[in-house]
Amino acid sequence: MRWIDGKVCTGRKQRAVPALFGLSLLAVAHAQAATSMGYLDALGTPSAGLDKAFATTDGTIAKIVSKLKKAKLYDSTWICVASAYGQAPMDRRQLKVIPLNKLDAVAVAIEPGIDAHLTGGDVALMWLSDKAKTKEVAKAFSEHAQSLGIQSVITGSALALTLNSSQRDSRMPDIILEPQPGVLWGVDALAGYGGMRDEDTHVALLISGAQLPGRFDPTLVPTTQLAPLLLRALGMEKFDLQALHLEHSLALPGIF
User: Fold this and answer.
1) CA distances from 96 to 16, 61, 99, 110, 183 (A)
2) What is the number of alpha carbons within 13 Å of residue 182 lying toward its C-beta?
3) Residue 182 and residue 247: Cα distance in Å, rounded?
4) Each residue's pLDDT expressed in tens, for the chain with a length of 256 residues
């Protein structure tokens, strides 16, 4: 709120109102993660706690809108609301937690110490100390897929379709494991980053501004298209953002 008043976060110094600023609203994520909250069924019926979290988030956005109007900035401001991630499974009755060390044991059985790094959750990423063993480790995961809750093993050329190849970029995992519906590896808390299922990746996106006509657009778009839209709104070229030189993401359709 202090940014809208042209002040730093402490409120002690005056500054120009930022052209671009944002915040994270975590009430919904925390409510989804709480054991007694989240959705109640596969229809997405919210619990009382999740309903309250939505109301809290809505109230926070309303306060921002009110503050912008008071500062006479509302008519020249765009408000973008998006979720960073969803969380599978929506229906908690499907939840099945499998210890992460069971995945680790499959790789170690092939070669001790080959498991350079492994992360879990609703997707598993594995980096290998010996990339020459990638196909062998991937085959072992495939053979144990049912007992480990693995739906698909992604590596090699299939992985390189969406990420940089691990052969050229050490930050990229050598193997990605996608879980069967409801499976989490090593954690029992929902509402965490990661995951490749529809429930993880299909999120709502709202763009609001006094200059924009009210309409619903059912077009499926990646959230990466928000960045070039913001650049255009600020009067900048999309290639002013280095990542867009590589990704060539289009701005969101139907706004400009």
Assistant:
1) 51, 35, 10, 26, 5
2) 8
3) 32
4) 788 888 877 777 788 888 888 889 989 888 887 877 888 888 889 999 999 999 999 999 999 999 999 999 999 899 999 888 887 788 878 888 899 999 999 999 999 999 999 998 888 999 999 989 999 999 999 999 999 999 999 998 888 877 777 777 778 899 999 999 889 888 766 656 667 777 778 888 899 888 788 888 888 888 888 888 888 888 887 777 777 777 778 888 878 7
